[in-house]
DNA sequence: GTCTATAGCGCGATAGAC
DNA sequence: GTCTATCGCGCTATAGAC
């Protein structure tokens, strides 16, 4: 494991801070204290704060969708794929007992204090995920594994919003265990068995 | 309609600001600009910002649960009661095209930057709502109106988290119409009909 | 690329006159 | 109860030395 360059360290620390405290709760001072450089030096890598956040969103999106597409391309059964997809969210919430949520869930909550280029990135991430869920739910329904009422698009919307939104609520009340129960309940509803 | 006193005006404006921008996005300066007094004067009514937020949470909780308990005590069928409950969330999201979410959803997202007395109030609100949902879902299940898999407690958790969480996501992508679709989908899942 | 130093701003909060 | 004035703080961001 080779040493990480400063720019990557800044991104890593900033992401952790935003996932816990939000964009407005993250400051260059906070980052510098962890990385071990002066806050002015951060401006060398990311002149404005929005540059840093934009870079974070791009990196997060690419990593996340790469994993999701790997799940979709696997030979697993639809239920297993869906379980693995939900597992990505569970892993974030459980990571390090530090009350982290999905980067895009936190920014969604702060939507009205963000500049519009960031808003567009957020909307794109939501759309990309719902598209993947539509694909996954359609496959499961065609195979007969999934048996839920209503149309696939609406169900995908519900699943994605519930996963992202539940993270924010579970953090305050119930934590990772509550979130896991909700995921299992979602799966039961999707499978449509009493 | 008699004129509203200053203290109530401050509460009203502060609540609107928090529901749109969050606690850290709301400032005494913002409030004073709308109410029409100087920001120093607000400290007469609420010495510290936390005093203002605490008063807001108490007022919101009492109003909200009073309405919910009215719904539960009505003679409506369980499905109608649930529809009316979800309608409270829809009404907030649709109010004034100003992208408002439930006060407690916003504070849940900001959990890690709030003092612990506020955190306790948030947890209590979540618990109170989930208790009411357990009661409502149990009634519907016993009457045979509701036919969902899994236990009632878990389903109540899912419904509450989905409603609160979806608000935050729907604001960025899909808006009030998306939220309405999700509510209808939730109702289909609870009724358990294909 | 990192440092020190500082500018400029908005914030929560307080003092004291009216 | 509201006002003017001000303090002290943390923040984003920039200038210039090394």
Automatic annotation (TrEMBL), chains A, B:
Q: What molecular function does GO assign, one term? A: DNA binding
Species whose genome carries this gene? Gloeomargarita lithophora Alchichica-D10
Q: What is this protein called?
A: TetR family transcriptional regulator
| Gene name of this polypeptide | nemR-2
Domain HTH tetR-type spans what residues? Answer: 4-64
Task: Return the annotated DNA-binding positions.
Answer: 27-46
* Assigned keywords, A-Z: DNA-binding, Transcription, Transcription regulation
Which InterPro entries is this protein grouped with? Homeodomain-like_sf (IPR009057), HTH_TetR (IPR001647), Tet_transcr_reg_TetR-rel_C_sf (IPR036271), TetR_C (IPR011075)
Gene3D superfamilies associated with the record: Tetracycline Repressor, domain 2
